Amino acid sequence: MKILVKQIGEYKKDTIITPIFTVLEVVAELLVPYVIAALIDQGIEAGNLKNVYLYGGAMILLAFLGLLFGVLAGRSAASASAGFACNLRQSMFENIQTFAFSNIDKFSTAGLVTRMTTDVTNMQMAFQMCLRIALRAPLMLICSMAMCLLINAKLSMIFLAAIVVLAAATTLIMSNAMKIYNHVFHRYDDLNASVQENISALRVVKAFVREDYENEKFTKAATKLYELFVRAEKLEALNMPVMMFIVYGCVLAISWFGARFIVAGSMTTGNLTSLFSYVMTAFSSLMMLSMIFVMMTMSAASGRRIAEVLREQPGITNPASPVDLVKDGSIDFDHVSFSYRQGSGEKTLSDIDLHIKSGETIGIIGGTGCGKSSLVSLISRLYDVDSGSVRVGGEDVRNYDLETLRNQVAVVLQKNVLFSGTVMDNLCWGKAEGYMDEYRNACRMACADEFVERLPKGYESWVERGGANFSGGQKQRLCIARALLKSPKVLILDDSTSAVDTATDTKIRKAMQTAIPGTTKLIIAQRISSVQDADRILVLDNGRVSGFDTHESLLKTNTIYQEIYEVQTKGGGDFDNQ
Protein backbone atom coordinates (compact mmCIF):
# COMPACT_ATOMS: atom_id res chain seq x y z
CA MET A 1 0.00 0.00 0.00
CA LYS A 2 2.83 2.43 0.84
CA ILE A 3 4.35 1.88 -2.59
CA LEU A 4 1.07 2.75 -4.30
CA VAL A 5 0.30 5.76 -2.07
CA LYS A 6 3.68 7.27 -2.97
CA GLN A 7 2.50 7.50 -6.58
CA ILE A 8 -0.07 10.19 -5.67
CA GLY A 9 2.87 12.60 -5.77
CA GLU A 10 2.02 16.10 -6.94
CA TYR A 11 -1.72 15.34 -6.88
CA LYS A 12 -1.94 15.40 -3.07
CA LYS A 13 -3.85 18.70 -3.10
CA ASP A 14 -6.66 17.30 -5.30
CA THR A 15 -6.65 14.11 -3.22
CA ILE A 16 -7.20 16.11 -0.02
CA ILE A 17 -9.82 18.60 -1.23
CA THR A 18 -12.00 15.95 -2.94
CA PRO A 19 -13.20 14.41 0.37
CA ILE A 20 -13.84 17.90 1.77
CA PHE A 21 -16.08 18.83 -1.18
CA THR A 22 -17.76 15.40 -0.93
CA VAL A 23 -18.62 15.92 2.75
CA LEU A 24 -20.09 19.35 1.98
CA GLU A 25 -22.08 17.83 -0.89
CA VAL A 26 -23.48 15.12 1.43
CA VAL A 27 -24.43 17.68 4.10
CA ALA A 28 -26.31 19.79 1.54
CA GLU A 29 -28.17 16.75 0.15
CA LEU A 30 -29.09 15.40 3.59
CA LEU A 31 -30.61 18.71 4.66
CA VAL A 32 -33.01 18.79 1.69
CA PRO A 33 -35.50 16.12 3.01
CA TYR A 34 -35.43 17.80 6.42
CA VAL A 35 -36.38 21.14 4.80
CA ILE A 36 -39.06 19.37 2.74
CA ALA A 37 -40.66 18.11 5.96
CA ALA A 38 -40.74 21.66 7.35
CA LEU A 39 -42.14 22.94 4.04
CA ILE A 40 -45.02 20.44 4.18
CA ASP A 41 -45.81 20.73 7.88
CA GLN A 42 -45.18 24.43 8.51
CA GLY A 43 -45.92 25.78 5.10
CA ILE A 44 -48.38 23.81 2.96
CA GLU A 45 -50.49 22.13 5.66
CA ALA A 46 -50.36 25.22 7.91
CA GLY A 47 -51.37 27.44 4.96
CA ASN A 48 -48.42 29.75 5.69
CA LEU A 49 -47.25 31.18 2.34
CA LYS A 50 -44.29 32.94 3.96
CA ASN A 51 -42.90 29.61 5.19
CA VAL A 52 -43.48 28.07 1.75
CA TYR A 53 -41.27 30.77 0.20
CA LEU A 54 -38.74 30.54 3.04
CA TYR A 55 -38.31 26.77 2.98
CA GLY A 56 -38.64 26.66 -0.81
CA GLY A 57 -35.76 29.14 -1.12
CA ALA A 58 -33.72 27.09 1.36
CA MET A 59 -34.32 23.98 -0.78
CA ILE A 60 -33.14 25.76 -3.93
CA LEU A 61 -30.04 27.05 -2.12
CA LEU A 62 -29.19 23.60 -0.74
CA ALA A 63 -29.73 21.99 -4.16
CA PHE A 64 -27.42 24.57 -5.77
CA LEU A 65 -24.74 24.07 -3.10
CA GLY A 66 -25.00 20.28 -3.46
CA LEU A 67 -24.58 20.62 -7.22
CA LEU A 68 -21.63 23.03 -6.86
CA PHE A 69 -19.79 20.87 -4.31
CA GLY A 70 -20.53 17.78 -6.43
CA VAL A 71 -18.99 19.37 -9.53
CA LEU A 72 -15.92 20.54 -7.60
CA ALA A 73 -15.51 17.09 -6.01
CA GLY A 74 -15.87 15.39 -9.40
CA ARG A 75 -13.27 17.63 -11.05
CA SER A 76 -10.69 17.24 -8.30
CA ALA A 77 -11.30 13.46 -8.11
CA ALA A 78 -10.84 13.13 -11.87
CA SER A 79 -7.59 15.12 -11.73
CA ALA A 80 -6.25 13.13 -8.76
CA SER A 81 -7.15 9.70 -10.19
CA ALA A 82 -5.84 10.44 -13.69
CA GLY A 83 -2.63 11.83 -12.22
CA PHE A 84 -2.29 8.81 -9.95
CA ALA A 85 -2.66 6.47 -12.94
CA CYS A 86 -0.15 8.52 -14.94
CA ASN A 87 2.40 8.31 -12.11
CA LEU A 88 1.83 4.55 -11.77
CA ARG A 89 2.52 3.96 -15.46
CA GLN A 90 5.53 6.25 -15.42
CA SER A 91 7.02 4.63 -12.32
CA MET A 92 6.45 1.13 -13.66
CA PHE A 93 7.98 2.01 -17.01
CA GLU A 94 11.00 3.65 -15.39
CA ASN A 95 11.55 0.65 -13.11
CA ILE A 96 11.25 -1.77 -16.02
CA GLN A 97 14.00 0.18 -17.81
CA THR A 98 16.35 -0.66 -14.93
CA PHE A 99 15.56 -4.39 -15.04
CA ALA A 100 18.29 -6.85 -15.87
CA PHE A 101 17.39 -9.71 -18.19
CA SER A 102 16.98 -11.90 -15.10
CA ASN A 103 14.23 -9.53 -13.85
CA ILE A 104 12.47 -9.47 -17.20
CA ASP A 105 12.50 -13.27 -17.26
CA LYS A 106 10.21 -13.21 -14.17
CA PHE A 107 7.45 -11.30 -15.96
CA SER A 108 6.01 -12.18 -19.34
CA THR A 109 5.77 -9.33 -21.85
CA ALA A 110 2.00 -9.79 -22.00
CA GLY A 111 1.87 -9.69 -18.19
CA LEU A 112 3.72 -6.38 -18.08
CA VAL A 113 1.42 -4.93 -20.76
CA THR A 114 -1.66 -5.99 -18.76
CA ARG A 115 -0.26 -4.43 -15.60
CA MET A 116 0.45 -1.11 -17.33
CA THR A 117 -2.97 -0.97 -19.03
CA THR A 118 -5.85 -2.96 -17.51
CA ASP A 119 -4.46 -3.06 -13.97
CA VAL A 120 -3.62 0.65 -13.89
CA THR A 121 -7.07 1.50 -15.27
CA ASN A 122 -8.64 -0.56 -12.48
CA MET A 123 -6.54 1.30 -9.92
CA GLN A 124 -7.51 4.65 -11.44
CA MET A 125 -11.23 3.81 -11.20
CA ALA A 126 -10.80 2.47 -7.66
CA PHE A 127 -8.87 5.56 -6.55
CA GLN A 128 -11.54 7.88 -7.93
CA MET A 129 -14.21 5.75 -6.27
CA CYS A 130 -12.33 5.91 -2.96
CA LEU A 131 -12.20 9.70 -3.09
CA ARG A 132 -15.85 10.09 -3.99
CA ILE A 133 -18.19 7.13 -3.47
CA ALA A 134 -16.21 5.28 -0.80
CA LEU A 135 -16.54 8.36 1.40
CA ARG A 136 -19.93 9.53 0.20
CA ALA A 137 -21.77 6.16 0.49
CA PRO A 138 -20.94 5.29 4.13
CA LEU A 139 -21.38 8.92 5.17
CA MET A 140 -24.82 9.07 3.50
CA LEU A 141 -25.73 5.71 5.05
CA ILE A 142 -24.74 6.69 8.59
CA CYS A 143 -26.27 10.16 8.42
CA SER A 144 -29.50 8.84 6.87
CA MET A 145 -29.80 6.28 9.65
CA ALA A 146 -29.21 9.02 12.22
CA MET A 147 -31.87 11.25 10.65
CA CYS A 148 -34.34 8.34 10.58
CA LEU A 149 -33.77 7.72 14.29
CA LEU A 150 -34.19 11.43 14.94
CA ILE A 151 -37.51 11.57 13.07
CA ASN A 152 -39.05 8.41 14.54
CA ALA A 153 -37.03 5.84 16.48
CA LYS A 154 -39.74 3.14 16.41
CA LEU A 155 -40.24 3.21 12.63
CA SER A 156 -36.47 3.27 12.16
CA MET A 157 -36.21 -0.19 13.73
CA ILE A 158 -37.91 -1.62 10.61
CA PHE A 159 -35.39 0.18 8.43
CA LEU A 160 -32.39 -0.94 10.53
CA ALA A 161 -33.53 -4.58 10.41
CA ALA A 162 -33.84 -4.36 6.62
CA ILE A 163 -30.35 -2.84 6.40
CA VAL A 164 -28.86 -5.75 8.36
CA VAL A 165 -30.57 -8.35 6.12
CA LEU A 166 -29.53 -6.53 2.94
CA ALA A 167 -25.93 -6.12 4.13
CA ALA A 168 -25.67 -9.85 4.91
CA ALA A 169 -27.11 -10.84 1.51
CA THR A 170 -24.84 -8.39 -0.34
CA THR A 171 -21.74 -9.60 1.51
CA LEU A 172 -22.53 -13.23 0.66
CA ILE A 173 -23.05 -12.46 -3.03
CA MET A 174 -19.98 -10.22 -3.37
CA SER A 175 -17.61 -12.52 -1.50
CA ASN A 176 -18.36 -15.28 -4.02
CA ALA A 177 -17.98 -12.89 -6.95
CA MET A 178 -14.66 -11.70 -5.52
CA LYS A 179 -13.15 -15.19 -5.78
CA ILE A 180 -13.90 -15.25 -9.50
CA TYR A 181 -12.47 -11.78 -10.15
CA ASN A 182 -9.17 -12.89 -8.64
CA HIS A 183 -8.74 -15.27 -11.60
CA VAL A 184 -9.74 -12.74 -14.25
CA PHE A 185 -6.37 -10.97 -14.53
CA HIS A 186 -4.45 -14.15 -15.22
CA ARG A 187 -6.80 -14.72 -18.14
CA TYR A 188 -6.13 -11.17 -19.32
CA ASP A 189 -2.42 -12.09 -19.49
CA ASP A 190 -3.25 -15.12 -21.66
CA LEU A 191 -5.41 -12.99 -23.95
CA ASN A 192 -2.77 -10.28 -24.35
CA ALA A 193 -0.09 -12.92 -24.97
CA SER A 194 -2.18 -14.39 -27.77
CA VAL A 195 -2.75 -10.97 -29.39
CA GLN A 196 0.88 -9.88 -29.07
CA GLU A 197 2.29 -13.14 -30.40
CA ASN A 198 -0.08 -13.17 -33.35
CA ILE A 199 0.49 -9.57 -34.40
CA SER A 200 4.28 -9.69 -34.03
CA ALA A 201 4.42 -12.90 -36.08
CA LEU A 202 1.63 -12.05 -38.54
CA ARG A 203 3.79 -12.69 -41.60
CA VAL A 204 4.73 -16.13 -40.34
CA VAL A 205 1.08 -16.90 -39.57
CA LYS A 206 0.07 -16.00 -43.12
CA ALA A 207 3.03 -17.80 -44.66
CA PHE A 208 1.99 -21.05 -42.97
CA VAL A 209 -1.74 -20.38 -43.45
CA ARG A 210 -2.35 -20.69 -39.71
CA GLU A 211 -5.04 -18.03 -39.40
CA ASP A 212 -7.71 -20.55 -38.36
CA TYR A 213 -5.42 -22.02 -35.68
CA GLU A 214 -4.61 -18.55 -34.30
CA ASN A 215 -8.30 -17.60 -34.36
CA GLU A 216 -9.11 -20.75 -32.42
CA LYS A 217 -6.36 -20.01 -29.88
CA PHE A 218 -7.56 -16.42 -29.41
CA THR A 219 -11.19 -17.53 -29.16
CA LYS A 220 -10.26 -20.02 -26.47
CA ALA A 221 -8.52 -17.30 -24.39
CA ALA A 222 -11.39 -14.84 -24.95
CA THR A 223 -13.99 -17.48 -24.07
CA LYS A 224 -12.24 -18.28 -20.77
CA LEU A 225 -12.36 -14.58 -19.89
CA TYR A 226 -16.00 -14.36 -20.98
CA GLU A 227 -16.99 -17.36 -18.84
CA LEU A 228 -15.35 -15.90 -15.74
CA PHE A 229 -17.06 -12.53 -16.22
CA VAL A 230 -20.44 -14.19 -16.83
CA ARG A 231 -20.10 -16.25 -13.64
CA ALA A 232 -19.19 -13.16 -11.62
CA GLU A 233 -21.87 -10.95 -13.14
CA LYS A 234 -24.55 -13.61 -12.66
CA LEU A 235 -23.83 -13.39 -8.96
CA GLU A 236 -23.78 -9.58 -9.06
CA ALA A 237 -27.10 -9.61 -10.91
CA LEU A 238 -28.73 -11.05 -7.77
CA ASN A 239 -27.91 -7.81 -5.94
CA MET A 240 -30.66 -5.73 -7.50
CA PRO A 241 -33.59 -8.20 -7.08
CA VAL A 242 -32.59 -8.92 -3.47
CA MET A 243 -32.25 -5.20 -2.75
CA MET A 244 -35.58 -4.30 -4.37
CA PHE A 245 -37.39 -7.09 -2.51
CA ILE A 246 -36.05 -5.86 0.82
CA VAL A 247 -36.60 -2.16 -0.07
CA TYR A 248 -40.22 -2.69 -1.15
CA GLY A 249 -40.88 -4.79 1.94
CA CYS A 250 -39.38 -2.07 4.13
CA VAL A 251 -41.37 0.69 2.38
CA LEU A 252 -44.63 -1.21 2.77
CA ALA A 253 -43.97 -1.83 6.45
CA ILE A 254 -43.02 1.81 7.10
CA SER A 255 -46.09 3.02 5.12
CA TRP A 256 -48.40 0.80 7.15
CA PHE A 257 -47.06 1.73 10.55
CA GLY A 258 -46.39 5.36 9.53
CA ALA A 259 -50.02 5.83 8.50
CA ARG A 260 -51.14 4.51 11.89
CA PHE A 261 -48.75 6.97 13.64
CA ILE A 262 -50.13 9.89 11.58
CA VAL A 263 -53.72 8.93 12.39
CA ALA A 264 -52.75 8.64 16.07
CA GLY A 265 -51.16 12.09 15.88
CA SER A 266 -47.69 10.97 16.92
CA MET A 267 -46.17 11.74 13.49
CA THR A 268 -46.69 14.34 10.78
CA THR A 269 -47.04 13.81 7.03
CA GLY A 270 -43.88 15.82 6.42
CA ASN A 271 -41.91 13.64 8.81
CA LEU A 272 -43.05 10.46 7.03
CA THR A 273 -42.16 11.97 3.65
CA SER A 274 -38.64 12.88 4.79
CA LEU A 275 -38.28 9.46 6.45
CA PHE A 276 -38.99 7.80 3.10
CA SER A 277 -36.35 10.01 1.46
CA TYR A 278 -33.73 9.04 4.04
CA VAL A 279 -34.63 5.35 3.79
CA MET A 280 -34.19 5.35 -0.01
CA THR A 281 -30.94 7.30 0.33
CA ALA A 282 -29.63 4.75 2.83
CA PHE A 283 -30.55 1.79 0.61
CA SER A 284 -28.93 3.35 -2.46
CA SER A 285 -25.82 4.07 -0.36
CA LEU A 286 -25.70 0.43 0.67
CA MET A 287 -25.90 -0.62 -2.98
CA MET A 288 -23.06 1.75 -3.80
CA LEU A 289 -21.04 0.17 -0.99
CA SER A 290 -21.55 -3.26 -2.57
CA MET A 291 -20.26 -1.87 -5.89
CA ILE A 292 -17.29 -0.41 -4.06
CA PHE A 293 -16.65 -3.80 -2.50
CA VAL A 294 -16.43 -5.40 -5.97
CA MET A 295 -14.29 -2.60 -7.36
CA MET A 296 -11.94 -2.73 -4.40
CA THR A 297 -11.60 -6.48 -4.76
CA MET A 298 -10.64 -6.14 -8.41
CA SER A 299 -8.32 -3.23 -7.71
CA ALA A 300 -6.67 -5.09 -4.82
CA ALA A 301 -5.60 -7.82 -7.25
CA SER A 302 -4.43 -5.14 -9.70
CA GLY A 303 -2.62 -3.26 -6.93
CA ARG A 304 -0.70 -6.38 -5.91
CA ARG A 305 0.38 -6.99 -9.50
CA ILE A 306 1.49 -3.38 -9.95
CA ALA A 307 3.33 -3.38 -6.62
CA GLU A 308 5.23 -6.50 -7.72
CA VAL A 309 6.70 -4.53 -10.61
CA LEU A 310 7.41 -1.43 -8.51
CA ARG A 311 9.04 -3.50 -5.74
CA GLU A 312 11.19 -5.50 -8.11
CA GLN A 313 14.82 -4.60 -7.54
CA PRO A 314 17.18 -4.68 -10.53
CA GLY A 315 19.21 -7.88 -10.53
CA ILE A 316 22.21 -5.92 -11.81
CA THR A 317 23.16 -2.53 -10.37
CA ASN A 318 26.12 -0.17 -10.34
CA PRO A 319 28.77 -0.75 -7.67
CA ALA A 320 29.33 1.82 -4.91
CA SER A 321 32.35 3.36 -6.67
CA PRO A 322 31.97 2.45 -10.36
CA VAL A 323 34.79 2.57 -12.88
CA ASP A 324 33.85 4.97 -15.68
CA LEU A 325 36.63 4.30 -18.19
CA VAL A 326 37.16 1.21 -20.33
CA LYS A 327 40.88 1.23 -21.13
CA ASP A 328 40.85 -1.13 -24.10
CA GLY A 329 38.97 -4.00 -25.72
CA SER A 330 40.76 -6.92 -24.08
CA ILE A 331 38.41 -9.62 -22.74
CA ASP A 332 39.19 -12.26 -20.13
CA PHE A 333 36.96 -15.10 -18.95
CA ASP A 334 38.45 -16.56 -15.76
CA HIS A 335 36.90 -19.98 -15.14
CA VAL A 336 33.37 -18.68 -15.69
CA SER A 337 30.26 -20.74 -15.01
CA PHE A 338 26.76 -19.44 -15.66
CA SER A 339 23.15 -20.62 -15.47
CA TYR A 340 19.91 -18.75 -16.13
CA ARG A 341 18.42 -20.23 -12.96
CA GLN A 342 20.96 -20.12 -10.21
CA GLY A 343 20.93 -23.18 -8.00
CA SER A 344 19.04 -25.29 -10.56
CA GLY A 345 22.17 -27.29 -11.39
CA GLU A 346 21.63 -26.69 -15.12
CA LYS A 347 24.79 -24.94 -16.29
CA THR A 348 24.56 -23.00 -19.55
CA LEU A 349 28.33 -22.31 -19.47
CA SER A 350 30.88 -24.33 -17.53
CA ASP A 351 34.48 -23.39 -16.64
CA ILE A 352 35.05 -20.96 -19.53
CA ASP A 353 38.66 -19.77 -19.49
CA LEU A 354 39.47 -17.40 -22.39
CA HIS A 355 41.85 -14.51 -22.93
CA ILE A 356 41.32 -12.18 -25.89
CA LYS A 357 43.67 -9.34 -26.79
CA SER A 358 42.42 -5.88 -27.61
CA GLY A 359 41.81 -5.46 -31.35
CA GLU A 360 41.55 -9.18 -32.09
CA THR A 361 38.83 -10.58 -34.30
CA ILE A 362 37.36 -13.69 -32.74
CA GLY A 363 34.94 -16.03 -34.45
CA ILE A 364 32.51 -18.04 -32.31
CA ILE A 365 30.88 -21.16 -33.71
CA GLY A 366 28.96 -24.17 -32.44
CA GLY A 367 25.62 -25.90 -32.52
CA THR A 368 22.31 -24.40 -31.44
CA GLY A 369 22.07 -24.14 -27.65
CA CYS A 370 25.80 -24.47 -27.05
CA GLY A 371 25.95 -21.11 -25.21
CA LYS A 372 27.24 -18.67 -27.85
CA SER A 373 24.76 -15.87 -27.12
CA SER A 374 24.96 -16.53 -23.37
CA LEU A 375 28.74 -16.11 -23.50
CA VAL A 376 28.67 -12.68 -25.14
CA SER A 377 25.78 -11.52 -22.88
CA LEU A 378 28.17 -11.72 -19.94
CA ILE A 379 30.61 -9.27 -21.57
CA SER A 380 28.16 -6.34 -21.49
CA ARG A 381 26.83 -7.63 -18.14
CA LEU A 382 23.32 -8.38 -19.29
CA TYR A 383 23.63 -11.26 -16.83
CA ASP A 384 26.05 -11.88 -13.96
CA VAL A 385 28.20 -14.99 -13.73
CA ASP A 386 27.55 -17.69 -11.13
CA SER A 387 31.27 -18.15 -10.50
CA GLY A 388 34.53 -16.84 -11.91
CA SER A 389 34.80 -13.40 -13.46
CA VAL A 390 34.60 -11.57 -16.79
CA ARG A 391 37.05 -8.73 -17.35
CA VAL A 392 36.96 -6.06 -20.06
CA GLY A 393 39.93 -3.75 -20.36
CA GLY A 394 41.52 -5.56 -17.41
CA GLU A 395 38.62 -4.66 -15.06
CA ASP A 396 35.88 -6.96 -13.76
CA VAL A 397 32.65 -5.96 -15.54
CA ARG A 398 30.91 -5.85 -12.13
CA ASN A 399 33.11 -2.87 -11.21
CA TYR A 400 32.05 -0.73 -14.18
CA ASP A 401 29.34 1.88 -14.42
CA LEU A 402 26.72 0.03 -16.49
CA GLU A 403 26.19 2.87 -18.95
CA THR A 404 29.94 3.23 -19.51
CA LEU A 405 30.40 -0.51 -20.07
CA ARG A 406 27.46 -0.91 -22.44
CA ASN A 407 28.44 2.16 -24.44
CA GLN A 408 31.83 0.56 -25.04
CA VAL A 409 30.50 -2.95 -25.74
CA ALA A 410 28.19 -2.70 -28.74
CA VAL A 411 25.99 -5.71 -29.52
CA VAL A 412 24.23 -6.40 -32.81
CA LEU A 413 21.72 -9.23 -32.50
CA GLN A 414 20.37 -11.49 -35.23
CA LYS A 415 16.89 -10.06 -34.59
CA ASN A 416 17.79 -6.50 -33.69
CA VAL A 417 14.99 -3.96 -33.56
CA LEU A 418 14.39 -0.80 -35.56
CA PHE A 419 12.10 1.79 -34.02
CA SER A 420 9.41 3.85 -35.70
CA GLY A 421 10.86 7.09 -37.01
CA THR A 422 13.30 7.95 -39.79
CA VAL A 423 16.44 6.07 -40.78
CA MET A 424 18.39 8.93 -39.22
CA ASP A 425 16.41 8.63 -35.97
CA ASN A 426 17.47 5.01 -35.73
CA LEU A 427 21.11 5.78 -36.49
CA CYS A 428 21.07 8.41 -33.74
CA TRP A 429 20.66 5.61 -31.21
CA GLY A 430 24.33 4.94 -31.88
CA LYS A 431 25.39 8.58 -31.78
CA ALA A 432 22.87 11.26 -30.92
CA GLU A 433 24.84 14.24 -32.22
CA GLY A 434 27.19 13.51 -35.07
CA TYR A 435 28.18 14.81 -38.46
CA MET A 436 26.40 13.58 -41.56
CA ASP A 437 29.67 12.14 -42.85
CA GLU A 438 29.90 9.94 -39.73
CA TYR A 439 26.46 8.47 -40.38
CA ARG A 440 27.23 7.89 -44.05
CA ASN A 441 30.58 6.31 -43.24
CA ALA A 442 28.96 3.90 -40.72
CA CYS A 443 26.34 2.93 -43.30
CA ARG A 444 29.10 2.44 -45.89
CA MET A 445 30.98 0.03 -43.59
CA ALA A 446 27.76 -1.88 -42.91
CA CYS A 447 26.90 -1.90 -46.66
CA ALA A 448 23.65 -0.10 -45.79
CA ASP A 449 24.39 3.00 -47.88
CA GLU A 450 23.60 1.19 -51.11
CA PHE A 451 19.89 0.85 -50.28
CA VAL A 452 19.45 3.86 -47.95
CA GLU A 453 20.53 6.33 -50.63
CA ARG A 454 18.09 4.75 -53.10
CA LEU A 455 15.17 5.40 -50.76
CA PRO A 456 12.84 8.28 -51.82
CA LYS A 457 13.92 10.48 -48.90
CA GLY A 458 17.28 8.87 -48.20
CA TYR A 459 18.22 9.12 -44.53
CA GLU A 460 14.92 10.88 -43.78
CA SER A 461 12.86 7.94 -45.08
CA TRP A 462 10.31 6.57 -42.62
CA VAL A 463 10.85 3.33 -40.73
CA GLU A 464 7.71 1.50 -39.60
CA ARG A 465 7.56 0.02 -36.10
CA GLY A 466 9.98 -2.89 -35.89
CA GLY A 467 11.34 -2.04 -39.37
CA ALA A 468 8.37 -3.75 -41.02
CA ASN A 469 9.01 -1.95 -44.32
CA PHE A 470 12.61 -3.21 -44.58
CA SER A 471 13.91 -6.68 -45.39
CA GLY A 472 15.75 -8.79 -42.81
CA GLY A 473 19.13 -8.07 -44.40
CA GLN A 474 18.46 -4.33 -44.58
CA LYS A 475 17.45 -4.23 -40.90
CA GLN A 476 20.61 -6.11 -39.91
CA ARG A 477 22.85 -3.73 -41.86
CA LEU A 478 21.21 -0.65 -40.33
CA CYS A 479 21.66 -2.17 -36.88
CA ILE A 480 25.35 -2.82 -37.60
CA ALA A 481 25.75 0.81 -38.72
CA ARG A 482 24.01 1.97 -35.55
CA ALA A 483 26.45 -0.06 -33.42
CA LEU A 484 29.50 1.21 -35.33
CA LEU A 485 28.49 4.81 -34.60
CA LYS A 486 29.13 4.16 -30.90
CA SER A 487 32.86 3.73 -31.68
CA PRO A 488 32.99 0.83 -29.20
CA LYS A 489 36.02 -0.88 -27.71
CA VAL A 490 34.25 -4.22 -28.24
CA LEU A 491 31.84 -5.05 -31.09
CA ILE A 492 29.74 -8.22 -30.84
CA LEU A 493 27.97 -9.47 -33.96
CA ASP A 494 25.59 -12.18 -32.76
CA ASP A 495 24.77 -13.94 -36.03
CA SER A 496 23.87 -10.47 -37.26
CA THR A 497 24.72 -11.09 -40.94
CA SER A 498 22.61 -14.25 -41.25
CA ALA A 499 20.09 -12.47 -43.48
CA VAL A 500 22.63 -10.99 -45.93
CA ASP A 501 24.29 -12.78 -48.83
CA THR A 502 27.83 -14.13 -48.60
CA ALA A 503 29.32 -11.37 -50.75
CA THR A 504 27.82 -8.61 -48.58
CA ASP A 505 28.92 -10.47 -45.44
CA THR A 506 32.50 -10.50 -46.77
CA LYS A 507 32.36 -6.76 -47.61
CA ILE A 508 31.15 -5.91 -44.10
CA ARG A 509 33.93 -7.93 -42.42
CA LYS A 510 36.64 -6.46 -44.62
CA ALA A 511 35.36 -2.91 -44.05
CA MET A 512 35.45 -3.40 -40.28
CA GLN A 513 38.96 -4.87 -40.34
CA THR A 514 40.18 -1.78 -42.18
CA ALA A 515 38.12 0.95 -40.48
CA ILE A 516 38.18 -0.16 -36.82
CA PRO A 517 41.38 -2.20 -36.36
CA GLY A 518 41.63 -1.29 -32.64
CA THR A 519 38.14 -2.59 -31.82
CA THR A 520 37.85 -6.15 -30.54
CA LYS A 521 35.35 -7.96 -32.74
CA LEU A 522 33.44 -11.07 -31.68
CA ILE A 523 31.57 -12.67 -34.57
CA ILE A 524 29.02 -15.38 -33.80
CA ALA A 525 28.12 -17.25 -36.96
CA GLN A 526 26.74 -20.51 -38.28
CA ARG A 527 28.81 -20.30 -41.48
CA ILE A 528 32.50 -21.07 -41.25
CA SER A 529 33.04 -18.71 -44.21
CA SER A 530 31.99 -15.82 -41.89
CA VAL A 531 34.70 -16.58 -39.30
CA GLN A 532 37.54 -18.44 -41.04
CA ASP A 533 39.53 -15.22 -41.54
CA ALA A 534 39.31 -14.32 -37.85
CA ASP A 535 42.49 -14.18 -35.75
CA ARG A 536 41.15 -17.05 -33.68
CA ILE A 537 37.99 -19.12 -33.61
CA LEU A 538 36.21 -20.32 -30.47
CA VAL A 539 34.37 -23.62 -30.78
CA LEU A 540 31.71 -24.19 -28.12
CA ASP A 541 30.06 -27.51 -27.31
CA ASN A 542 27.38 -27.85 -24.62
CA GLY A 543 28.57 -24.75 -22.78
CA ARG A 544 32.24 -25.73 -22.76
CA VAL A 545 35.26 -24.68 -24.79
CA SER A 546 36.00 -27.40 -27.34
CA GLY A 547 38.69 -25.46 -29.20
CA PHE A 548 40.18 -21.96 -29.48
CA ASP A 549 42.68 -21.48 -32.28
CA THR A 550 43.12 -20.41 -35.89
CA HIS A 551 41.07 -21.86 -38.72
CA GLU A 552 43.99 -23.94 -39.99
CA SER A 553 44.87 -25.34 -36.56
CA LEU A 554 41.28 -26.24 -35.71
CA LEU A 555 40.93 -28.13 -38.99
CA LYS A 556 43.83 -30.30 -37.84
CA THR A 557 43.03 -30.72 -34.14
CA ASN A 558 39.31 -30.17 -33.42
CA THR A 559 36.83 -32.88 -34.33
CA ILE A 560 33.71 -30.70 -33.98
CA TYR A 561 35.16 -27.97 -36.18
CA GLN A 562 36.17 -30.58 -38.75
CA GLU A 563 32.62 -31.93 -38.83
CA ILE A 564 31.14 -28.47 -39.31
CA TYR A 565 33.59 -27.73 -42.07
CA GLU A 566 32.90 -31.03 -43.83
CA VAL A 567 29.14 -30.55 -43.66
CA GLN A 568 29.23 -26.97 -44.94
CA THR A 569 31.81 -27.34 -47.68
CA LYS A 570 30.92 -30.80 -48.99
CA GLY A 571 27.43 -31.68 -47.75
CA GLY A 572 25.97 -28.20 -48.26
CA GLY A 573 23.98 -28.61 -45.06
CA ASP A 574 23.67 -26.92 -41.70
CA PHE A 575 25.55 -28.21 -38.71
CA ASP A 576 22.63 -27.54 -36.40
CA ASN A 577 20.51 -30.04 -38.26
CA GLN A 578 23.04 -32.86 -38.12
Structure description:
The chain has 578 residues and is of the alpha/beta class. The chain folds into 2 domains: 2-311, Up-down Bundle (ABC transporter transmembrane region fold), CATH 1.20.1560; 331-577, P-loop containing nucleotide triphosphate hydrolases (Rossmann fold, 3-Layer(aba) Sandwich), CATH 3.40.50.300. It is built from 20 helices and 12 strands. The protein has helices at residues 2-5, 12-44, 49-97, 101-104, 109-131, 133-151, 153-200, 202-207, 211-237, 239-264, 269-311, 372-379, 402-408, 423-427, 436-445, 449-452, 472-484, 502-515, 551-557, 559-571, and strands at residues 331-338, 349-356, 361-366, 387-392, 395-396, 409-412, 421-422, 462-463, 490-494, 520-524, 536-541, 544-549. Strands 6-9-10-3-11-12 form a 6-stranded mixed β-sheet, sandwiched between helices. α18 (502-515) links the parallel β9 and β10 (520-524). α7 packs antiparallel against α10 and α15 crosses α17. It is elongated. The two termini are 55 Å apart.
